[in-house]
Amino acid sequence: MRPSRRSPRRTPQIVALGGGGFSMEKDSSLLDDYILSLTAAARPRVCFLPTASGDADHYVVRFYRRFSAHCDASHVSLFRRDQGVGGVEDDLATHLLAQDLIYVGGGNVVSMLGAWRAHGLDSVLRRAWRRGIVLCGPSAGSLCWFAESLSAFHGAPRRVRGLGLLPYSNCVHYDAEPARRAEYHRFVAAGMRPGFAAEDGVALHFRNTLLERAVSSRRDGRAYRVEPARDSVVEVPLEVAHLDSDPDLALARAGHPASSPSEALAAGSSPSETLPPGALAREPLGAAA
Questions:
Q1: Which of 11, 36, 57, 177 to pair with 99, CA 20 to 30 A apart?
Q2: Is the pTM of this model over 0.85?
Q3: Which helix (H) or strand (E) holds 119?
């Protein structure tokens, strides 16, 4: 296995998709292109974790169709005897920590977190984040990174404790499932951490634990900050940059690492929502239980 090319001092990044990416779009996804641009690698090493789907074969196939032409693509399976490709079976931790990007698929977030903890991947992913390996995913692949989230998979909506890399709560599919929006408001009003909600086709990009910007593959895509207010909640719309309309983002999406989002900010373009230190933040959780 090749040694890692990544500096251990690289800024931690998470891109949390409300829904979208290759799993929901037939062709090349603007969101996936944006995420790949964050790696600043000519041919990124990308590993897919389809745990939340039970390692569904069709999901793994779609991943390779999307990424194998331009990336060194691999996957890790926890529900198959064959755990993956490229020597993954030898050492899952070493393989994951050698990646530029770890892409987590959608599905059942409760089952996924349980499997990760049983195999020790929760600790490995925390190490990957600290090293600056880009972490991302839609649906369950978004919910998992937060301290708390709302899951509506199989039954009534429930409050789920995630990995706690981001000290907020999270709600996905905000437009596609209206009942989920109402339940998220109810949970936040009842004591769930304040947090962020995103519609399908919208992604929340965090550097360290602060939201740098929200981006969308849809011109009408929306995202929100949701906070408690007395006996109710306040839903604050975030500015969302459309990936085909913003020239800096379009350039980065086209595969020019020099025009990364952080450099675009330094050049003067405004972020969608850069939160000040302490805003919406509580102390990050330790090892999730």
A1: 57
A2: no
A3: helix 109-119
